[in-house]
Amino acid sequence: MTLRHARRLGGVTAAAIAAGLLTAPGAFAADTAPAVLGTSQGSEYRADACDSTTDPSWVGRTTNGPTLNAKVTGTGARFGVWDETTGAQAPVFTGEAQAYGQQAKVAVPGLVDGHGYAWHAWAVQDQQASAPSADCHFRVDTTSPTATVSSPDFPASGTATKYAGQIGTFVLKGVDPAPAGGAASGIACFRYSFSTLGVGGCSSPNAVRPNDDGTVSLPLKVRNWGTNILNVQVMDNAGNVNVASYTFYAPSNPNPPQALGDIDGDGVPDILLPDSAGNLQIISAGSASTTPTATIPANWSPNQNSWTNVQVMHRGWDDSHAPMDDLLMHEGGSGALYFSSNQDYGSFTGGRLSVSRPRACQNASGKATACPGGYATDWHKADQLALIGSLDDSTVSSLVTIEEGNLWLFTDPGFSYALRSARQLTTTGDWAGYDLIAPGPDAAGNLALWARDRATGDLHAYPVPKKADGTFDFSALADPKANVVATGFTTAAYPTLGSSGDGDGDGMPDLWAVTADRHLVTFSGWSAPKDLGALR
Predict the structure, then answer these.
(1) pLDDT for residue 41
(2) Three-state SS for 351?
(3) N-terminal to C-terminal alpha carbon distance within the chain
(4) Cα torsion for 158, 161, 167, 173, to the nearest 10°?
(5) Nearest residue to 503 via CA among 486, 487, 478, 520
(6) HEC string of 141-176?
(7) Which residues are registered as beta bridge partners of 168?
(8) On the chain, which terminus has fewer CB atoms closer than 10 Å, C or N?
(9) Tens digit of pLDDT for each residue in 178-195?
């Protein structure tokens, strides 16, 4: 039922006088009529329809009914409410309230679910009333909607057709029942989460609005193997809510795709960059746009505030879980280095662990030796860090850092990147002013280190070949000025450079860059730039 009624101020006012609601206007002039502020539920105001064309707003279930609000000139206000669904001339509610700060308000109990109402307010001063406010309207819906969830890919009973780590379709359906002789407000939105929903409305990041039939189909990545629960909240246009949960089983993939640099388990390397709000975006290196496949909240960063100044490294995975990159995280100047295990397809909900600095050092032959004077006991001297790749047959990467202008190699990783050996690769101090980039191993297992000279914009590529005895030759790292492969990568043009590994599937490690105006550019190797667009 549409409640766009012509105004009937005179009739309502006459009925109010006859019912004894007010005395006729006297010295209290008509221009002191209240300004209607609207109805409210708790702290939420709803603008009422106070003209001949606007549809009335909806109010939902409250403890004492909706509250009418009016701004008045006077000591208080009187209110009258009429049921427009029944058309009765007698008011269904009358009330009076004192004004505080020129605002008077009164709660209206006992309204009928599904009915539409009109109301007036009159300013009161010395037992005299002003002219009435505008004739305003609202509708009542106190019945909560219901929601159901289904999925053709991950059914609640039966066999799933997809695996954990893959995107499945989930269908949310809402029903807002109408009472006999009345109307319902309709479904406004759904909120959803695989964890606790928390508080939020239709403007929440995880809220979606339904189609005209009250349904919506969501493509959601299932990030955990085993039993999962999708929690759903449905809200109607009157603000009434209800919740539903959907429990299903996601089997593990017996043949998961594998690619070094992959965070979200789709077999394609990923680029990790902060957005303008400090959240960490996971962007597929094979994407044609900057739309992230997932976002890690800012409060999950090491400083619990923002990822903006945190160097995030990923290359290799722990043998104890699925083949997706774990994270190492370091904030400039901090003595802490953190590790986060990736067991949920890039959500990283398992928290983080501190990575202690090795107490033991090695020489070039891999033999134990005394650490040099000034060797730091934490990570505060690390200016640049990069995960270069595995130096043995494991899948856990070793770490390269620049400290006081020299390259250091940290290897012999144990559980949770518990790096146990340190080796100083250079002693000249010439590496100050370089950005380290780790492109990952080639098909033969040879490693490489790339670096950008911040002063010149030159890009260098240093081979770290695997020798016949299985060890690696780091001699190319002695001179950082050698092996220039490209120019023009200035800090003015590209403040940030990195590598995702082989993002385009051509077998060649790929470079990516962020421009000064925050566009993401990917390269085939270090040539053929492709602008994917502006970052969020």
Answers:
(1) 64
(2) coil
(3) 43
(4) -40
(5) 520
(6) CCCCCEEEEECCCCCCCCCCCCCCCCEEEEEEEEEC
(7) 220
(8) N
(9) 998 899 999 999 999 998
- Rounded to an integer, what distance in angstroms lies between the CA atom of residue 236 and that of residue 213? 13
Give kind and range of the element (H or E) at residue 436.
strand 434-437
Give the pLDDT confidence of 245-264 residue by residue, as tens digits.
999 999 988 888 878 888 98
Q: Which residues pair with 339 in a beta bridge?
A: 328, 353
Amino acid identity for residue 513 in this structure: A
Other residues' Cβ atoms within 10 Å of the Cβ of residue 349: 14
Give CA 124 to chain center in angstroms.
Answer: 50
35: tokens are 């300004």
**Sequence-separated (6 or more) residues with CB below 8 Å from residue 116:** 1, 3, 56, 83, 84, 85, 137, 138, 139, 140, 183
The average confidence (pLDDT) of the chain is 87
Residues 6+ apart with CB under 8 A from 96: 76, 77, 78, 79, 106, 124
The single residue listed with the structure tokens 């590209």 is: 494
Q: Model confidence over 408-448: pLDDT tens digits? A: 999 877 666 778 899 999 999 999 999 999 988 887 888 99
* Predicted TM-score of the model (pTM): 0.69
